Hints:
Layout: E1 16-19, E2 25-30, H1 36-44, H2 48-55, H3 64-71, E3 78-85, E4 88-98, E5 111-118, H4 127-141, E6 146-151, H5 156-163, E7 169-174, E8 177-183, H6 188-210, E9 214-218, H7 227-237, E10 243-247, E11 257-258, E12 263-266, E13 278-281, H8 288-298, E14 302-305, H9 315-330, E15 334-336, E16 342-345, E17 352-355, E18 363-370, H10 373-385, E19 399-404, H11 413-421, E20 428-433, H12 439-450, E21 455-459, H13 480-489, E22 493-495, H14 498-510, E23 518-523, H15 526-538, E24 542-543, E25 547-548, H16 555-566, E26 573-578, H17 596-608, E27 618-622, H18 626-633, E28 648-649, H19 652-672, H20 686-697, E29 756-757, H21 760-769, E30 777-779, H22 783-793, E31 797-800, E32 816-819, H23 822-836, H24 839-842, E33 845-848, E34 854-863, E35 867-874, H25 877-880, E36 885-889, H26 894-903, H27 921-937, E37 941-951, E38 956-958, E39 961-965
Parallel strand pairs: 5-6, 9-10, 9-13, 10-12, 13-14, 14-15, 18-19, 18-20, 20-21, 21-22, 23-24, 23-25, 23-26, 26-27, 27-28
Antiparallel strand pairs: 1-2, 2-3, 3-4, 4-5, 6-8, 7-8, 11-12, 16-17, 16-19, 29-39, 30-33, 31-32, 31-33, 34-35, 34-37, 35-36, 37-38, 37-39
Amino acid sequence: MRSPSDHHAYPTHWEADVVLRDGGTAQIRPITPDDAQRLVSFYERVSDESKYYRFFAPYPRLSDRDVHRFTHHDYVDRVGLAAIVGDEFIATVRYDRIDGRGMPAAAPADEAEVAFLVQDAHQGRGVASALLEHIAAVARERDIRRFAAEVLPANTKMIKVFTDAGYTQKRSFEDGVVRLEFDLEPTDRSLAVMRAREQRAEARSVQRLLAPGSVAVIGTSRTPGGVGRTVLRNLLGGGFTGRVHAVNHAFPDDMAHLAPEGVPAHRSLRAIEEPVDLAVVAVPADRVPAVVAECGEHGVQGLVVLSAGYAESGSEGRDRQRDLVRQARSYGMRVIGPNAFGVSNTAEGVRLNASLSPQLPNPGRLGLFTQSGAIGIALLSGLHRRGAGLASLAGIAGISTFVSAGNRADVSGNDLLQYWYDDPRTDVVLMYLESIGNPRKFTRLARRTAAVKPVVVVKGARHTGSAPTGHAVPTTQIPDATVSDLLQQAGVIRVDTVTELADTGVLLASQPLPAGPRVAILGNSESLGLITYDACLTEGLRPLPPRDLTTAAAPDDFRRALTEALTDDACDAVVVTAIPSVGDGNAGPGDGDGSAEALATAVREAAQGAGPGPAKPVAVVHLEIQELAEALAGTGGEPAPGTRRIPAYPAAERAVRALAEAVRYARWRQEAAEPGRVPEYDDIDEVGAAADIQVLLAPADGTPDDGAGGGPGDGKSDVTGSGPGDGKSEATGAGPGDRRADGTGGGTGDDAGLGVELSAADTQRLLARYGVSVLPALPAPDPDAAVRAAERLGFPVALKPTASHLRHRADLGGVRLELGSETELRRAYAELTDYLGRPEELGLVVQRMAPRGVDTVVRAAIDPAAGAVLSFGLAGAPSELLGDTAHGLVPVTGRDAAELIRSIRTAPLLFGWRGSKPVDTAALEELLLRVSRLVDDHPEMVAVDLEPVVVAQQGLSVLGASARLAPPPPRTDLGPRHMPAY
């Protein structure tokens, strides 16, 4: 029995901000005794009908006893949560633990009765669904496994909340009451429901920011210039279809309109007699809190904060930034910024340019998100220059929506991915990111979005090891190479430069995806064709021999050649190259007319009328023919409706790189259409492993590790190193607590010192629960012990040290292999102790020789931000020195495991390089899958290191293994929906 609960500590970690169905926000937190008056006020605003549904009888007011009961909880057996907006309750939920007879109980009873009450004005906003997610997570934390709820049949809204949640449930009807019982263990359906609701809510919250009916610019100066006045003019210049208000407390009392713009002028937002959907804030940082309060009281839905002086300015600014987000969310508002550049929406019915960009981007199919105003304006300008299309016709490089989020304290790239996922006006997502606040969620959202439209990302601040100034986000220890692998696994197209971002986006927005890597090359320059051919080989494409049309080629020659290439089943894409004609002084190639427009028309017509069969992408490479690029983009005159636009590039390498990214993305998308499967293994003992982990972790749970490890036995990791089976390379790794070149060598970032490093015996026992056997190694404290160990294991054997400074260091001469007799073993023992030190310093062990093969390394580690990451590479120099390691998020599927093995540069060594025999990659894939299952089933396994794993022609041998246990970091992706709190 638990002690009286009023003394249980207030669970701060249950507090959360959530986005509701309509895009507004609310705070969810535990109810406390201080909330008595809030509860009374809330109840007074609830209709009699809702009260009847809650208490099954007329219940006009709460008694003092009711108020005490509903505000005093032990946070274990009795818990109450409230949804709050503007410091007022809008909904409550509570559970009471009950026994099998429905009476109040304490643990170990694992059932609770749950009940909701939602203020009528807020019904239909998804408040009850959000509260159910959070109260269920709280109940699971308190070892409650099942909820029961009694509902009147007429209360169909509440019944729907329960039935739609996706939990396994049972329904019965007795005495005029519907009784619902449902298990709280998350199911695939409940997770899918939660994530679908999350997507709709977050997308709606962004849509409210990008499509407002009215905008107030707060901080509009009286004289021309200044940030506020600039945004106001940009709004009007872009043709915003809604209402615009200028607000400045310094305006004269008798000033009704701002000249020469002619917009209504107000000293305060309170003076505006109509709703305001979006407020653009351009006042000094110290005045922002008062502005936010005014906006919240007026019912503003969202803020774009251009003001600087926040986290980018130091610790005081970081506190100011947190206060800004906290204050805005308390009113149900979302924030873009602070230190933002602004937002744009080119939709004909909106035409919003609430940014510092002097002109509204031309309309198109690209969604653009940046965390830098400078990069944002550079991208907008570059896309406009390369042919943004006519105002009345979506251009080849036009924008659907643009957000430059500055410090991205609230609205982030994740929110925009939610919005663009099903936005019909956006075909391609372009993102410039300097930090990823929630990598696990980002990869999940990016994978889902990439399955329907390309996501192209350029990542700044890749090598600094920390987030840029102003980005108050959780840090990650994962190196950039690992991040790149994880993004690739999610289908994200990762490019290196802003130029490549635009190049790739333009091609994907205007061309169909290629069916394969075969590329036809044609043009009027043999040299340019050869350069293009070489670029294709560099990017891993399969170019056909270039077709030289000669410098005398006319537009009709290009048309015929392109038509033939597009109808050729042997090619999947076409690159057209063009250089200026020589002799007539004209800039364009041709048969004397010098017309770039004529060539553009020929190329477009050939691409448009290629005949039956799947469409193929076409890109044009031109040298010094800018008129051709403009004509292909459609800026030289309005082409006929449905005319295909063709991207043009001033360098072959840029065109081919963009095409190669499209080829790789198309291949990923084809494979993603049939998702891989996480296999089941009958010999896995998940329950036994959980019991072992509980015993191993209990003594050190939450206690810093002193470096000596700790297990049930002696607490030492006595055998963690071993030698390769082929007698060639000895892995050069380190223990699981060391930072590895691939960033996944163990530990959990800042928490790497917590928990226990397991002994060899404990590690091997846990691995065995998942069908992973480690070749035994016996201690050899003296020569006689070494001989006895060898006789027990059977000759030939290996002799090697396990001391941390010698483990996996064959280059130091500390490993002796293929010792076939007692004499050889004794001689090797003497040599090692003479050369390297006393036996007790070396920690020598004897191990039976494994079949010859290729030495590999398999690791898994948990990063606090990204989650569990599985890594694979060849042992020794390839992974340690060259960084040739592949990474994937856990759990990996069979397809992921196969891709991991094949994605490293040294993979040919596994498949029969230079006449060698291929090794058993099927066994290697199974090992990866088993390790993935282990760390996925048991997040306490924060680091697992198998090195080396010798893969032979038949089977494999794990020669060394180490592992670390620690209390797992929270899995935010599996918990209830909530907004990040930085």
